[in-house]
Every structure is written in structure tokens, then in C-alpha cells.
Write the C-alpha cells for this entry.
Amino acid sequence: MAKSISTYPNTDPRSGFCSANSTFYSKRKPIPLPANQSLDVTTFISSRAHHGEVAFIDAASGRSLTFAELWRAVDAVSTSLSSDFGIRKGHVILLLTPNSIYFPIVCLAVMSLGAIITTTNPLNTAREIAKQIADSKPSLAFTVPQLLPKLADSNLPIVLLGGGAPSSSKLRIITTIEEMMRREPSASRVRERVNQDDTATLLYSSGTTGASKGVVSSHKNLIAMVQTVVSRFKLEDGKQTFICTVPMFHIYGLVAFATGLIASGSTVVILSKFEMDEMLMAIQKFSATYLPLVPPILVALMNHADSIKRKYDLSSLHTVLSGGAPLSKEVIEGFTDKYPGVGVLQGYGLTESTGIGASTDSQEESSRYGTAGLLSPSMEAKIVNPETGAPLPVNRTGELWLRGPSIMKGYFSNEEATASTLDSQGWLRTGDLCYIDEDGFIFVVDRLKELIKYKGYQVPPAELEALLLTHPQIDDSAVIPFPDKEAGQIPMAYVVRKKGSTITESQVMDFIAQQVAPYKRIRRVAFVASVPKNPSGKILRKDLIKLAVSKI
């Protein structure tokens, strides 16, 4: 049963800090989870009462899906998966596609059977996708015609999402999503009992550091997320229209669009990729009220406000939702000055916490500049000294630990990574250095984790360093985040040439560009005599960051 902050003795109602156990409790009203343990997230979402009519609109074609059409499609696809292709509880299904009206249909159909959905970035290379396939071992894949070459060597059965397929002896195309959606839903299909603790999604994240790992999230995790999203935006109060430009394969997109918002009866307008003019045109055409985005897009809207407002009617828009990094006072004030009728809400979450952690839910909360917000409902936090492990009180900086109903089950087939991230009491070590102030607001100070945030994408330096070391003319390397106004951060490499080598900056960048997705590319290179390291051999990235920034 969800408990309110008043349940815990010795807890300061202002900060939420309990002196007895050094735990911060959420000040928000707790959200109870369904008592029925035999419940999958698809059934939970479809059974929620709302008055919405249109679930999804494809911005490019104008094609729409009503809620009735959506749920019939989900039922038909799940029938086909079960009866025609033998998909059962525990089977993994790969989804490789840009944002699409089919994305939520596939996710919801797969999860309704107790099967597991794993998504991947369409920008990933065939090598990167093959690595995920080898790890997750999917039974079949859904993809679009233009991405078929990336699955050519997988030997997976493939369901095609829209369009015709090129002829290739390597491809095992078994059907199309349109054919599956025409299937008559059958009551006789095999539906095994799904428990809230069963695995629903397997999303790949770089975690707190290092190589990509599969994050195992349960139906309970997703149900808790849906409850939080719907209550946060008070969506039962009226019809709302959201623009979806953030990637659906990522936890940010999956939280909001493939699951969260359809539970409220909201309409989601889907753009296959981010393009500023297309996004603005969609806001105008469909009278959108909410715009989820990442900080670089918000900054661009602010910087070009005058020309944007001359060209587009954005009067329907009342809220932008920003995630990925806290916004500064200058950015929030600059944006609200340019768009006086539009509120700015922020959120903090990880793939490992099903996108839930903290948020600002009103303009008043967002005006506490630099904050990630208050703890989400039913979420608990600790601030821990990363060196001693000692819990810290209000206004002291340490690593943020989170515990709550949306925290992942663990990393897929990786006990070592799970043990280093989740403790025996269910606390998730976020890898973020934070403090919580006297009013319960979380402030992210720095990252213990070493991920580079490029336009909201996570770029693990260790992966790029390992690739650089495979080059015959490179002796050593270190990759750091370099500040960039448009992207937030870009990957920068410090490279030690081998004796006699004449490798150039452009050759280093080209070498990496041929092997990774565009967002992971190295965009700046400097040559050094040696890479600074501590006695245990760990790269001293902060020293390199200071060196790089000092030369701006």
C-alpha cells in the first residue's frame, strides 16, 4: 500500500527528510498500485476509463487511429503473434523503427502476451544492433523496409512495418503489420497468466557507466510509471494533444507515448523524426497543447522565437516538458519571456527507473531554477557519500540513490552490473551527484557516471575509447564531453599517436564515424603526449575536461 509522508515518524514535512533512517520521502500524494497481481500493463491501460476519441495521428500523412481502432489492432496483432507465430510469455521481440503509429501497437500487443519488447535506435549500425540481438536473443523482429539491411545477417523472422520489401535471399520476411492487423482477434489464442512482477521491456542503456546493458523492467514498473505520468499532468481534467518528436525507442518516448498518455485519453501526434519546421507545423495544424522536448530544442525555440512566431501560430501550446538536463535560470526566464503563455515543466529519470524520479509539476516549482524537481509519488531517495557510503542530510552533496515501484528488476544476464547498481534493499545507485534542499527539491550537481549527453542521446566514452585503441596508429585515448550550444555536449577525443604516426584529426573522426551511429561520432580531436590517469589506471577525465574548456 502506498504511504504518505505523514506515515513516517521523525520526518520533516518541509524537506521530506527522515532523521531516523536518513531517507527522503516524496512530498507528493502517493499513488496506489492495482491490488490484482495477475495483471499486465496492456490490460491495465486498456481498462482505464477516459473520454478520449483519437489516440494517435501521423503528422506526415494525417492518418489517425481512434482508441477503438487502436485496441482492436493490439488484439489482432497479439492474436497473430500467439496463434500464427507461436509467441509465448518470456519470448523477446525486437522493434527497430523510427517513431511510427505502429510502435505502440506492437509494444502493447507483445506485452499483453507476457512477451518482452526490446527496442533499438534506428541510427545504430548493423554491428551495434547485432550485439543487442546476440545479448537479448529475440524470437522475431519488427522493422521498416529502409532498415532491413541492418538485420540482413541476423537470420531473424521479420514482420514488415509498412511498404514493400526489397528482394534478398538473406531476409526472412514472414508477414506485414497490416496483414496482422486484419487478423480476426481470437478468444482461443494462448494467453498465459501474466504477473505484475514479470518482465515487460528490455531497453538498452549504458547504465551508470560503460558498455550498453539490457534494463529489465516489469509490468509493475510500467504500471507505476503510467500512474505517475497521468497524475502528474492531471490529464483527466480535459482533452490534451501531445507532439511526439522524442524517440519512442528511448525511455522518454516509451514512457510518454507508447504507454503513459494513451491511458489518459490524450491524443499523440507522431513525427517520425525531429525536424524543427515539421514540429512547429504540427503544433499549429493539430492545436497541440503539450510539447515534450530536450534542452537543445528548447534553447533553439527561445533563440529563434521572433521568426518562429511570425511564421507559425503556437497559441494552442500551453506547456513544454523538458528532460535530459536541468534548465538554467537564464534559459527558463528567456523562454517564458519569449512565450509568455507557455509553462515549462522539467523531469528527471533514468531507463533504470522507468523514466520516473523527480519532476517540477507547476510553474512555481520550475521557478526554483536549476532543480530537477520534487521526488515523484511513492519514490524514496538517499544522498550518499560516494567514498564512505554514509547517508547525508539536507543540503549535502553526494550520490543520489532512488527506491520505488518503478525501479528496474536489474540488468539482463549481468549479475555483476546489477549488484553494483542495485543493493539488496532495492536502492538504485543513479551515478548522479546531487543534493536535496530544505524544501525537498533535488539539484543535480555533476555526474559520477561518465556518459556524454549529445542532443539527449547517451554516448559512453568507454565504447569510443575501445574502438580508438583498435586503430594501428593510436597508442592511447580518452573521450570526454565538450560543451556545445546546440547539442549540449559533443564527444571529444584526446589521442596519443604511436611513434612515427601522422594520423590526422579528420582521420580519427572518420575511423569512428564508419563504426558507430551518428550521435556517437567524435566531433573534436586533440593530440597529447599521454593520457592522465590515477595510480589504478583510471582516466582523469575531469583534468582533460578542464584542459579542453580552458582553450575555448
